[in-house]
Write a structure and sequence with these properties.
Keywords: Signal
Distance between the termini: 37 Å
Radius of gyration: 44 Å
Strand content: 15-25%
Number of strands: 12
Length: about 400
């Protein structure tokens, strides 16, 4: 079954030029006022002189005129000076202003890419509900940049399903993911699996949610702070949130539902399973727990305790060790609990080890379901797989069989 999920993110002022122009204009105004006052005073004095001394008056008038002319000659000179000063100030203004504007424009131009980031946050709780959903989708969906829509089925805030309805290829199991808030800084991601072989046959009667791995809130916060705002905006606007259960598979269904048989039937099935040869039991555990089996491979079986066993597919080279191992616990009530390794800090399976991992993926199945899996395989296939089991003494070397929490 091809899965889309888990592809496991100051402007300068020109006041100086204005001050220079104002000072020049003021000086010019004061000089012109002084000249005008001198001329008026001189004319008043001329009216008091006797009319009999005409030549003298004429001479004085001529001298006065010349003096007045000599005084008024200074005004155009001052005007030119003022014009030059104002011209220089204007040129300075014109030369500085475009440069400042250009510099500001260039600064804004080069600053734009740096500004195109989301508001930095330090906690997942600082994000809005849709931003949190966006980061959860980003953590596991191979979504399209445009055109994708997600239906969110959220009967409770602690456990919900996100269903990609914008991607048509494959059946609903390829595009639905369940998220569980663990309230410890992590979310658990689960996918829909089934006892049948094709998506078209999967129903709520033969399917259940199987844990894949955990994703930490801190890693999603780091991704949020680096995400392109347009991508984030696209994701935020793609959610249709509803408070109903997921119609294809109940959100809290962690195992295949029991049939309508009585408790005695269940006991008979458990007894029948317990009577099987030990290696056949292991073969059925591998078939249900790992899924892909290879009778030509070699399976190391670690059983340090009576009710708990680790089975490791040593012959499968693709991926890290954590991709090919299960821990199986007999609950003593006709059911088995199957766990797989998870890590809250490792970014890839190659980084997983006993110091950063634990048995955290949990699926509970009935022994009857293992018998049904055996019927589907056929006795010959079960026997071939059973012959590939190799009992190995001691504890599992990569992850202690009893390690159920992250090491401190």
């Amino acid at each position: 079954m091809s899965k889309k999920v888990l592809t496991i993110l100051a402007v300068s002022g020109l006041l100086g030029a204005g001050v220079v122009g104002a000072t020049t204009a003021s000086a010019r105004f004061n000089k012109m006022s002084a000249t005008s006052s001198s001329l008026v005073s001189h004319k008043k004095a001329d009216k008091k002189k006797p009319t009999t001394v005409k030549a003298t008056m004429t001479s004085d008038k001529s001298k006065t005129t010349k003096k007045a002319q000599s005084k008024t000659v200074a005004t155009p000179k001052d005007t030119d000076t003022a014009k030059v000063a104002n011209s220089k100030a204007s040129v300075a203004s014109q030369s500085v202003a475009p440069s400042s504007a250009q510099s500001t424009a260039q600064t804004q131009k080069f600053a734009t890419p740096a500004a195109a980031t989301n508001k930095q946050v330090s906690s997942f709780d600082q994000l809005t509900q849709k931003q949190q959903l966006a980061m959860l989708v980003d953590s596991c969906f191979a979504y399209k940049p445009t055109g994708t829509q997600f239906d969110v089925y959220m009967p409770t805030a602690d456990q919900f399903v996100i269903y990609d309805i914008g991607e048509g290829a494959g059946g609903w199991p390829d595009h639905a993911v369940r998220f569980t808030n663990n309230h410890n800084g992590t979310y658990t991601i689960a996918e829909a699996v089934s006892t049948v072989s094709s998506n078209a046959e999967m129903t709520s009667q033969n399917s259940y949610w199987k844990t894949l791995q955990n994703v930490s809130e801190s890693s999603m916060v780091a991704r949020f702070n680096q995400m392109d705002p347009s991508t984030l905006n696209m994701l935020e606007n793609s959610f249709n949130i509803q408070s109903t259960d997921f119609p294809y598979l109940p959100i809290n269904q962690n195992s295949v539902p029991e049939t309508n048989g009585s408790a005695s039937d269940t006991n008979v099935s458990a007894a029948n399973f317990d009577r099987l040869p030990q290696n056949q039991k292991y073969a059925l555990m591998v078939q249900v727990g790992i899924g892909s089996t290879n009778p030509n491979s070699s399976y190391a079986v670690y059983a340090p305790s009576q009710n708990q066993v680790v089975i490791y597919d040593k012959g499968e080279g693709a991926g890290g060790w954590s991709d090919h191992v299960i821990r199986v616990t007999d609950n003593g009530n006709g059911t088995l609990t199957i766990n797989r390794p998870v890590s809250d800090t490792a970014q890839a399976t190659a980084e997983m080890n006993k110091s950063n991992s634990y048995w955290g993926q949990t699926v509970t199945v009935s022994k009857d379901k293992l018998l049904q899996a055996g019927d589907t395989m056929g006795q010959q296939a079960v026997d071939a797989l059973a012959n590939a089991m190799v009992m190995t003494p001691g504890d599992f070397p990569y992850l202690p069989i009893t390690q159920d929490t992250m090491p401190k």
